[in-house]
Amino acid sequence: MHWSPPALWSVIGLALIALEAAHPAFVLVFFGVGALITALVSLVFDISSSHQLVLFAVASIVTLFSLRRWLKNVFYGHSRTAQREFAELQSFIGSEGEITEAIAQNGEGRIKVRGSFYTAVSDLPIRSGERARIVEDPRGDHSVFKVVRI
């Protein structure tokens, strides 16, 4: 049985893409795409076997390097590093908000910051409706903020 180059490249491409499902390193799919591109080009143009191999290699490498990072983020999402989480946590310090539940001296109340409500503590009393600034995250988990009236 004699396979035409487009049929052979199509089978190779689909097999590589299928193998990606069994071995998800997010690399084989790009070689599969390279094979499918080679199949399409060899269907339209009569090119030699050596040119087909060069086209396969170039198409695979170009798709790998140009699309892998972007598609990996699409399929796997972004991971949050501890340093990034710490920076986001620290970013609340200095933020201003409105007190929604009064805070008694050395007591606890609520503050609205960035559209969300949080528990707030203060050394001095702060009335509901007054503005306050976050100066500390004592527990380090956004559950309670130390605030001062501004």
Written overview of the protein:
The chain is of the alpha+beta class. The chain folds into 2 domains: 5-76, no CATH class; 84-149, OB fold (Dihydrolipoamide Acetyltransferase, E2P) (Beta Barrel), CATH 2.40.50.140. The protein is built from 4 helices and 5 strands, in the order H-H-H-H-E-E-E-E-E. The chain has helices spanning 5-22, 28-44, 49-76, 82-90, and strands at residues 96-101, 107-113, 116-122, 131-136, 144-149. It has a 5-stranded mixed barrel. Helix 1 (5-22) runs antiparallel to helix 2 and helix 2 crosses helix 3. It is rod-shaped and about 90 Å long. The model has no long low-confidence stretch (mean pLDDT 88).
Question: Which key terms come to mind for this protein?
Answer:
2 domains, 4 helices, single chain, 150 residues, five-stranded mixed beta barrel, alpha+beta, rod-shaped, OB fold (Dihydrolipoamide Acetyltransferase, E2P)
Counted by DSSP, the helix tally is 4
Question: Structural class, from secondary structure content?
Answer: alpha+beta
User: What Rg do the Cα atoms give?
Assistant: 29 Å
Oligomer: single chain
The main sheet comes to:
5 strands, mixed, barrel
% residues in beta strands: 15-25%
